[in-house]
UniProtKB/TrEMBL annotation:
Transmembrane segments: none annotated. InterPro entries: ADH-like_C, ADH-like_N, ADH_Zn_CS, ER, GroES-like_sf, NAD(P)-bd_dom_sf. Its cofactor is Zn(2+). Residues 8-357 form the Enoyl reductase (ER) domain. Keywords: Metal-binding, NAD, Oxidoreductase, Zinc. CDD domains: Zn_ADH_class_III. Gene3D superfamilies: Medium-chain alcohol dehydrogenases, catalytic domain, NAD(P)-binding Rossmann-like Domain. GO terms for molecular function: S-(hydroxymethyl)glutathione dehydrogenase [NAD(P)+] activity; zinc ion binding. This is Zn-dependent alcohol dehydrogenase.
Amino acid sequence: MKAAILRAAREPLTIETVELDGPRPEEVRIRVAGSGLCHSDYHVMSGDLGSPFPIVLGHEASGIVEAVGSDVRGLAPGDRVVTCTSIYCGHCGDCQDGHNHLCSDKPVRPQPQTNSPIRQNGEAIQQFCNLGAFAEEMIVHRSAVSKLPEGMPLDVAAVLGCAVLTGIGSVTAGADVKPGSKVVVLGCGGVGLNVVQGARLAGAAQIIAVDLNPAKLELARAFGATDVVLGGEGAVERVIEATGGGADYAFEVIGIPAVQRQAFMMLRKRGTLMIVGITRMDAELSVPALALLGKEIRIIGSNMGSVPFQRVIPTYAQLYLDGRLTLDPLISQRIALEQINEGYEQLIAGETARSVIVF
Ligand code: APR
Ligand code: ZN
Ligand code: ZN
């Protein structure tokens, strides 16, 4: 099969032919239909997140089941599915507590994967997030798969696997935003637009989108933003003015400590700062300690939307089919695997929300 391979940080991806070995008993082989370009993969490309190489990136995908291992129940060839990086064991304390996205005993192949299912002339190629979705096919653990309802288009469904899950989940499950709240969202990329949309679904009264890029602010209105504010210097004051004293919730969906601090400064008393964006490995968050206690601020994080993805993805797909979830404007363009480097250049330049590779 064809796959986009990253051989070292700060090098372009190369389209190469590789072999796929499996599925093993607990695994599923999937023909990829759509694969979204998320900023998280770029953290590996840029070297902000360390990783073994060579690697097939990509973690936001949809596809059709081709084959299932002997221990897989409830899935069969032909099933239309979305995959997610949150694979889980089902029996550790975190899974038993209902937080399988935080599983402490993930059924992963040993890392780095010397026995990866992706091979090239006998050499192992790593699978990013246990998926490796920038490829024509994937072999994934059975717990990485969620079935789609009838009628859900596969190219659109791809973005459910990260942008929609992470964005909406961080609002509804992570921060548990209450109806009537004032919510500010810093960073309106693929994930941030879904935080905006999640706040709308949660019944927020005011949703303020903040971004450096005016085009992203316009897009945010289509997802439910009631106000838009240009980011950077002066953004804190503008949000405090727009909210009449500060927001109840501030979501940082970029991954920059200075912006996380700005988000903190935008909160009113008893407000909540929610960290969603992935930072560099060595980044630290710094906020004024006196304001933290004086205003009784809560600071929390959300990992992949803080939800059991297998349960919520079909629900999100159904909301889309019922016209209640906005997904079409999220997909700026559909591209071929060969256009992936250009697609990432456009993401970093802020020209696109999501590019989806269609196979
Ligand atoms: N202030 C406001 N907005 C900013 C700033 C800033 N200082 N810097 C960047 N932005 C905006 C960009 O203009 C862009 O619209 O943040 C947005 C980031 O969006 P994307 O690059 O599309 O990233 P996305 O895929 O949404 O992921 C966001 O969440 O999952 C993580 O790893 C991911 O850290 C990344 C974050
Ligand atoms: Zn577990
Ligand atoms: Zn992602």
